[in-house]
Amino acid sequence: MARDSAHRPVETVETAFDVVEFLKRNDGAGITEIADELGLAKSTVHRHVKTLESRGLLVQEGDAYRISTWFLDYGVHVRNEHTLFPVVKPKVDELAAETDEKVWAVIEEHGVGVHIYGAEGRHSVKTHARIGQRTYLHQFAAGKAILAHLPDERIDEILDDYGLATQTARTITDRDELREELATIRDRGYAFNREESVVGVHAVGAPIRNQSGTAIGAISIAGPANRLRGDLLIEEFPDLLLGATNEVEINLAHS
Q1: Which pLDDT score is estimated for 8?
Q2: 0.70 exceeded by the pTM?
């Protein structure tokens, strides 16, 4: 059966975003490189690139093009206008100062986790995580905390769409095993990440839920595995997180 024309993708728009995505992955590229990668004629790529440049989305540097800061303006606007951001930001800052570790606020969008804000404590370690990063929910503590507090049908949709990609040797890649862990997370109220997204890094994450109990985000604390272990990982940090997320939930309900 043919799809409704109103729901068919617009190929020129898709191509434009393929160009942008390629430039993002490669920190810029020339017309020939883009054309070869996307399997398009150089004349087609040239038209797309020049149109994007004329709208301020790309910047030309010699024979290469890169993404402009136009996207930064949109990204910051979206983040700042999100209902959760102004309420969760102070708690993330507070937790980072109290724990001396890296603390993140994460939301779910289109079935993946998006890091919307992070704060560093005095002993934070550097990882690949960054503001705006999109990560599979099953691979990290905040993501699993969110997954565990979504409706079952939504969990099935996400797993059907994205599967269970491996990030490290410890990433959960079995659907039944993940379901069991999500049930445990729901019972105790928080999730652990023991080197499942970054080798040598542990984390604990707790959901931020709306009044119906569905997760709208999560907060996580992450640090070196040799430091985040024992009572610190299993008791102290979960207690801090549950207090922080509960406060955020109350403030959201009355904002």
Answers
A1: 62
A2: yes
